[in-house]
Design a protein that fits this description.
six-stranded mixed beta sheet, D-Maltodextrin-Binding Protein, domain 2, 3 domains, Dipeptide-binding Protein, domain 1, Dipeptide-binding Protein, domain 3, 29% helix, seven-stranded mixed beta sheet, alpha+beta
C-alpha cells in the first residue's frame, strides 16, 4: 500500500469537457430493463432513468412517488398519478403505461425474476389516464411497497423494444449512448448536463483517475488506506455515511459440507468481524446479525455472533471432521480488488480454525451468473436497497428457488416458511413486525446466511462538485441534484 499511495502522489491534472460529469463505478450496470435487472449497479442506474409509483422515507416506510394510493378494500388498491412525467419522446406517463409494465412482469412468457414477488396481483384495471386499480388474490399489508419497478412506455413494450441496452424512461436522466461495455452516457433532463458512468474496476486506478481529473467523483469499494489518502488531498472532498446494505456469506444446501449446520456455525464463530472492520475496512462498517437493520420498523436488535476460535474448532469436530480430516470449501467472490481482499482475510481466518478454503474470483457477470444458477459452495455478496420485509420470501422461502426468487442456496425450512406465511397474512403492521422479528431470530440460529456487516458509504469528488447526498442503501440518487462549478477545477 505504500507503493500505491506513492504512485497516487504522482498524478497530473486534466479537465473533463464542459457541462459533463464523470462518475467512476467499480461495477458497470448489466441490464437497464427494470423488469429484469437484479444486480446493484443496474438497479441504482435504473433509478435515474425510470420513475416508479412509490418510494421510501428515511424510516423505511412507504411514501408516494409517481402516485398516491388508497386501500379500497383488503383486496383492492387504487393508485392516482400525481406527478406529471414525460418519456423521452415527450409522451406523458399514463395509467396505461403502468398497467402495461406490470402486466409484462406478470406474464410468464416475459421471464421476469420479479414476477414471483408480485404473485398476489390478480388483475390491473385502468380507470382513466391518471387512475388504475390493482386487485389482489390475497390480502397484503405491504402491497404498495412492492410497486417500485420503473415504468416503461406501453407502446414500446408492445414493440418488444430492447430496454436492456436502450432504456426509455421518465426519470431524471435520459439515455444517450452505450458506446462500449463499461461506459454509459446519460443526460439530465433539468439542465442537459451530461453524465458519463465509467467502469474502473481497480480501486487504485479509480483513485488515480479522480486525482488526474479523468473522473469527477466515485462512490464506495475503496480500501480504507486510499480513503484516508483522499481525505488529505486539498482538491478532493470525502463524505462518509452509515449504510444499510447487508453483507453476508451464503451457502449451498444441496452440498454435503455447507448444508451441515455445525460447519456453518463453525464458520460464523471463526470469523473476527471486529478485526476485519477495524483493520481492513478502516472502521467503515458495523456488525450485522440480521438482514434488516435494527432501526427498521420490522427489525430486531439481535446479539452478534462472537468470534470464538475454540468454539469453532469444537463445532468442526462435532460436524464430523475428526482424525485429522478438515473441511475443504470453495469460496467464490467477484474480481473486485476490495472484495478479493476481504475474501482473502476471511479465507485466512477460517483456515486458522481448521477450515481449508479455496478462493476463486471471477468477473462480475460470471460470478453473479454462477450464484444465480446455484454453482457454488460458499460465496459472499451484499443485499442492497432493501426496504420492505417481503425480501424474506424472495430470499428464504422454499417457493423462491430461481427463477421464482433468490433462494439460490436451496434453503428449505418448514419453520421459515411458516413464519413468512404468518407475517404475510397478519392483519396489522404491528403483528406482522413481530412475525418478521421471530423469523430473523430463527434465521440467526439456522444460518442460511452468516451475517457479516452493514457497510458504510464513501463519496469522493473533485473541487467544485456540490449537492451530492449519500443514501443509506448506496443508491446514486444524489446524481439527480449534484452540481459542478465548471471552470474552477485544478
Amino acid at each position: 500500500m505504500v507503493l500505491v499511495v506513492a504512485s497516487v502522489l504522482l498524478y497530473a491534472c486534466s479537465t473533463p469537457p464542459g457541462n459533463e460529469l464523470r462518475f467512476g463505478l467499480s461495477s458497470a450496470p448489466i441490464n437497464l430493463d427494470p423488469r429484469f435487472a437484479t444486480d446493484a449497479a443496474s438497479s441504482r442506474v435504473n433509478r435515474l432513468i425510470y420513475d416508479h409509483l412509490v418510494d421510501f422515507d428515511d424510516s423505511y416506510r412507504i411514501a408516494p412517488s409517481l402516485a398516491e394510493w388508497e386501500q379500497v378494500s383488503d383486496l383492492e388498491y387504487r393508485f392516482t398519478l400525481v406527478q406529471s412525467r414525460e418519456f423521452k419522446d415527450g409522451s406523458q406517463v399514463t395509467a396505461a403505461d403502468v398497467k402495461a409494465t406490470y402486466d409484462s412482469i406478470l406474464d410468464p412468457e416475459t421471464g421476469s425474476p420479479h414476477r414471483a414477488g408480485l404473485s398476489m396481483i390478480e388483475s390491473i384495471a385502468v380507470l382513466d389516464d391518471k387512475r388504475l386499480t390493482f386487485k389482489l388474490n390475497k390480502a397484503d399489508l405491504l402491497f404498495p411497497g412492492r410497486l417500485v419497478i420503473g415504468i416503461l412506455p406501453k407502446k414500446l413494450i408492445e414493440q418488444d423494444h430492447a430496454f436492456n441496452r436502450s432504456p426509455v424512461g421518465s426519470g431524471a436522466y435520459t439515455f444517450s449512448s452505450w458506446p462500449e461495455d463499461g461506459v454509459l452516457n446519460l443526460q439530465r433532463r433539468s439542465d442537459n448536463l451530461k453524465l458519463a458512468l465509467i467502469e474502473v474496476k481497480k480501486p487504485t486506478v479509480r483513485v488515480l483517475k479522480l486525482l488526474r481529473g479523468e473522473i469527477d467523483m466515485l462512490q464506495n469499494d475503496l480500501p480504507f488506506e486510499l480513503v484516508s489518502h483522499l481525505s488529505k488531498e486539498s482538491n478532493i472532498s470525502v463524505t462518509k455515511g452509515r449504510g444499510s446494505n447487508f453483507t453476508y456469506l451464503g451457502f449451498n444446501f444441496q452440498d454435503e459440507e455447507t448444508s451441515n449446520l455445525k460447519l456453518r456455525q463453525a464458520i460464523a464463530h471463526g470469523l473476527n468481524r471486529e478485526e476485519i472492520i477495524k483493520y481492513v475496512m478502516g472502521g467503515s462498517a458495523i456488525e450485522a446479525s440480521a438482514l434488516l437493520p435494527p432501526d427498521h420498523w420490522a427489525g430486531l436488535a439481535l446479539p452478534y455472533i462472537q468470534y470464538n476460535p475454540e468454539k469453532a474448532r469444537l463445532l468442526i469436530r462435532e460436524a464430523g471432521y475428526v482424525g485429522g480430516k478438515r473441511p475443504s470449501l470453495v469460496y467464490k467472490t467477484s474480481s473486485n480488488p476490495f472484495r478479493i481482499r476481504l475474501a482473502t482475510v476471511i479465507q485466512t481466518q477460517l483456515q486458522d480454525v481448521g477450515i481449508d478454503v479455496e478462493l476463486r474470483s471471477y468477473d462480475w457477470g460470471t460470478f453473479y451468473g454462477d450464484i444465480k444458477a446455484g454453482r457454488f459452495q460458499m460465496f459472499s455478496l451484499s443485499w442492497v436497497g432493501i426496504k420492505t420485509p417481503d425480501i424474506f420470501r424472495y430470499v428464504f422461502h422454499s417457493d423462491s428457488v430461481p427463477p421464482n426468487g433468490a433462494n439460490r442456496g436451496r434453503f428449505f425450512d418448514t419453520t421459515t416458511d411458516q413464519l413468512i406465511d404468518s407475517a404475510e397474512t397478519a392483519t396489522d403492521l404491528e403483528s406482522q413486525a413481530k412475525y418478521y422479528q421471530q423469523l430473523q431470530a430463527h434465521l440467526l440460529s439456522s444460518l442460511p446466511y452468516v451475517p457479516l456487516w452493514y457497510e458504510d458509504h464513501v463519496f469522493a469528488a473533485r473541487k467544485g462538485i456540490n449537492g451530492y447526498t449519500l443514501a443509506r442503501d448506496g443508491n446514486y440518487d444524489g446524481l439527480k441534484y449534484v452540481t459542478k462549478e465548471f471552470g474552477i477545477d485544478k
